[in-house]
Each structure stands twice: as C-alpha cells, then as structure tokens.
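Today's session is about reading a structure prediction critically. Students often jump straight to the picture, but the first step is always the sequence itself: look for stretches that repeat, for charged clusters, for runs of hydrophobic residues. Only then move on to the predicted structure, which in these notes is written as discrete structure tokens rather than atom positions. Here is the chain we will use throughout the hour.
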Amino acid sequence: MAIDTPARIAIVGAGPTGLEATLYARFLGYDVDTFESASVGEALRPYGPIELPWTFGELSSPLGRTAILTQNPDHRFPADDATITVEQWLSSYLLPLAEVDLVVDSLRPGRSVAQIGREGLRRSDVVPFDDRFDELFLLRIADRDGNEEWLQCDIVIDAGGGESEPAGWGVGGLDPIGAARLASESNILLRHVVLPDEERQREWADRSLLVVGDELPAIRQLDALLDLKRASPETTIDWIVRGNPEEDSLGDRLAPLVSTDPRAAERMARIEQGVAAGLIRRLVGLQVASVSPAQEGWWIDLVGSQPNRLRSDRIFALTGFRPDFSSARELQLDLSPETEGPRAWADYLNAKRSGPEPTRLESAEPLVNHEPNYYVIGRKSYGRRSDYRPSIGLDQIRALFTLIADRPGLDLYRHLPTESA
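Below is the predicted structure for this chain, in token form.
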C-alpha cells in the first residue's frame, strides 16, 4: 500500500538486492535502515572464484552504476556483456555501491533483525486488514555483542539471502540418519558449490567423491570435478539422483532451469559425456538413508531402485536451500506449501511456466503479502526454487516502488534521476 515520504523503511539484508533497494528508496526520499548481520559482501566471499552465469549488465542496475560514477568518476566497470566471478562482482560493483553516500548512510552492518511484529498486535489477533495496516512494525534488533534495541518503521522489505538453511539431503527431503555427526566436519560435508583450487585438488585427488542432487548447483560441481578426475584418474565420482531410472533424462529435468544459467547446457553435455565415458557413476532412483563412519571416510547407505552402500571421503550435498522466516513468525504471512516462499509470488511464477518467460512485472500485485506493507524480494522470494536471477530482483524493486510511492509509471532504471548521489 502507498505510503508518502518521509516514511521509514527497514530493509533486511544488505546483499545485492538489499543494496539496490536501499539506493532506490533513498533516491525517492524515504528514510531507510538496512540491516546486515555481517559486513557487506561477507556471505559472498566464500564463493569468490566461482564464475557467475550472468553478464555484468544483468548483475548491476543503471541506477547503481550512475550513483557510483557520480561519486567516483574514475571508477571502471566490466563490459555489460562480460562474464565475471563473484569476487569481481564484489570489487567492481557491490562494494562500491555500498560506499555510495545514499547507501552507506543507511547501512547497519553487524546488526541483525531478530524479530518482526506489529506494535500493538499479535499474529493470532483477528482484526480488520486496515487495523493491521495502521499499526507500525516493531523490529527487535541485535548486534554481535548481544546488545538489543527496538526499531519502529512503516514498511519492511525482506531481501535476506535465501541460502541460510540448507534443505535435507536424504530420504524424502530429510537429513540422513547420522548426518548430525557430520555437522562439524565442514571439510567432509559441503553444502554449496566449491571449486577445486590447488589446495583442494591435492586434498580431493585420488579420493572417493559423492555428489547428491539433481539441480544446477550439482551440475556446476560435477563439471568442476570432471577436470580433477582427468588430472587424477584414481579419483572416483559417484552421483546420486532421485527419480525413475527408466525415465531418467537429465536434460528434461533441468530444462526449466537452463534459462537461469546460459552455460548449463554446455555443462550438462560434458557431464553426460563423462557418464558415458565412465568418469562419473550416476546412480538414479536412489536416496541417502544413513551415513556412518568407515575406517577411512564414511559409509553411505542408499535406498530406492537398487539399495546399495558406498564409501565416500567427501560429500557434496547440493539439494538446495529453504528460506528462513522465523524472525517474522508474529506476522500473518501467506507462504506457499511448495516453495515456502510468499504464495502470491509462487503462484505468479507457476502461472508463467506455461507461457512465455516474464521479462517485466506488469504490476506489484505478485509481491503483495497477506501482511500489509511487508514485502519479500530477491532470492528469498523464490523459496526452495533454484531458478532465481538477479535481474528479477531488480525488476521486483522497480515494481514494488510503483506501489509504495503510488506512481504507476515510476522507473528509475529507465529514467535516471538527475539528483547527485
């Protein structure tokens, strides 16, 4: 719902979408507090050498680039069509964006949003919609030292990361029996794509490696491990895939996701060749039931089409993530039973599956939640889905502020403001 400036907006998360939303809101004259539990970019740094599947033009906004150049005319960006790594994204764009005056003044690093509620209401209160709208949001803010404070605001934009809680990697989406014993073994159980640098090449060479998962992260990991296998032939790579072994088709299963990663088709082709050449052993129709220590490495017990047991030294459990809305439990959220993200956005994406891929939101309606003026954007809005693209997050910001500012034609990305950043 529309709220005039100078209203106060709290943005949860200073990742790529949170930074862009902060800049957009500040240009429009809103008071903004953007909370980040760590420092800006800290969550992305472990992925530094990984090449992103999108071009720099898709990873940045015209508004952001203009703001950076206004403040630092000598700054140089990669070409719009350049493919860059996470580290290059941070150094060339995200960190300079965080230093823009309009953004840095709103950043609250080292402070997390512990809880979000309405000042005079609880979730269980049955009141008219307008009564919930009239009550200010109340946020409990905590810093790293345990200090806490209250914050009141008119609007909450949740742009928190969607990868804070890994999904289960065993039978039925649960964690395997014995998985808790691996929790402290961060070098054994890996939950995100890790490229084999020189140190890891030495560590993983001639070892038994297991990849669990059938979505794009698993594909990227397998593609990287193929080079290790060719360099160290004694290395074994097992790949566990759910589904019917008689109807297994990697291409069919991943086709809806290829649009989010232009290089996915090439990677899939290399992996299929690797499977055919015996470099990768693909086990279809199986799920992990339990794990237990072996004399060396770990035993993996499998159930499904061909119950089996195998041994592994490293486990890449790349089965996706689930969103964390625990801080918003006192809000009346309407979440999708499939994605665990906002239902309205999930319904919008499902409706577009049968038609052409959406290139631009026609309105902010798919972003409207049951809780008035609480919005979820960016990666977190996709919930368990893995087909998010940063350009979608930018379009969500554009559409959202047409609603908040009650200006249907507003688009700061196409009509750049003349004010100095």
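Discussion point for the tutorial: Residues 168-317 form a domain with the FAD/NAD(P)-binding domain fold (CATH 3.50.50.60).
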